[in-house]
Amino acid sequence: MAVIGPSARRIAERAAALARIGAVGEGVTRLGLTPEERRAHALVARWLAELGGRVRRDEAGNVFARVGGGGSPVLIGSHLDSVPEGGRYDGALGVVVAVEALEALRAAKVVLRRPVEVVGWADEEGVRFGLGLYGSSAAFGRLPAQAAERTDARGVSIREALRALGLRGDPARARIRKGSLRAYIEPHIEQGPRLARQGRALAVVTTIVGIAHGRVTVRGRQDHAGTTPMSERRDALAAAADLIAAIARAAAARRDAVATVGEIAVRPGAKNVVPGECAFSLDVRAPRERDVAAVLRAVRVAAAALDRERGVRTSLGRMDRVPVTALDRSLRGLLRRACAAAGVDAPELVSGAGHDAMNAQLDGVPAGMIFIRSRGGSHSPREAADPRDAARAAAALAEALRELCG
Ligand code: GLV
Ligand code: MN
Ligand code: MN
To answer: Cα separation of 266 and 30, whole Å?
Structure first.
């Protein structure tokens, strides 16, 4: 039997309150380690303090609040940053649902023998510093070397951004002691159409795709746009355009693989100058490691051919990798039972989006995820979720917590 009825109205109000922080038109721009993200963390911290949570902020900029007894906690939550001009639910709704699960447990007077800790992760999207899953990477000991020195487009480093937020500037200090968490459970919108098509409100995630992301730089030669014959050009942007088309073909040739170039910069960037340099982002994902590797290999082969044909030099910079991550099998079973107790027959789904749950699982913390039906895709202001579905997710999460911590 489900714990009690979480409040869809309160969920809608809280999601709306978060969406006002960094609002742009119908969407949200709340990048990681900015004052906007900080304000979102502070708002969530206030809700949690009102629920009796003991709030703390770690040295990576993540916010936590703990309730309940002693021992190793079950961590629940998601991230509070967004992509530029993103939706209001990616990440934020998961945190609101986690808070609502605590509300539900309190209303049902469930005694928590084991603690529950809610987390709002920092900079999951990795837009500003190019480092996805940043906050959870710090907490689970998975930051790449020299992470604090990575800079944003203005040359501000993570270290400096943390200091501007009143922290010491060393995200590695956020490491959670290994073995100190019982489990991690993340509610999150589905971000794709599958649940809506199946007419189901919730799903339980089995596996999260592997991700490789980094930057590609094409160096050509800057020249006059009017006087340089076409046969003598080393146009970095024209070569990049061919390479980007080859990247799309390489991913399309492998089932379930995807590759995206979402950001591009051209130097010097003037209509009457043949581009001398072009740098772009590359994001490759697939549910099988071998397909991620195959797409990257195809990109290198295409780049080498273009270098010869167009007289440019292409380099694939350091690629950050997150391996394909299967979530914890017994939590999957528990979450499906909890969804059933909340009145939802939840199918199992693979996630094409990356999630902080990957870092927990990869650090040996049993991790599970509940997906909430959403519409309008994701990473866009069209993102939409029904607060009643979110309330069902909160009921399922509360049920799972009662089993794990009650
Ligand atoms: C985050 O949303 C990601 O999948 O990149
Ligand atoms: Mn997300
Ligand atoms: Mn996202």
So the answer is: 25
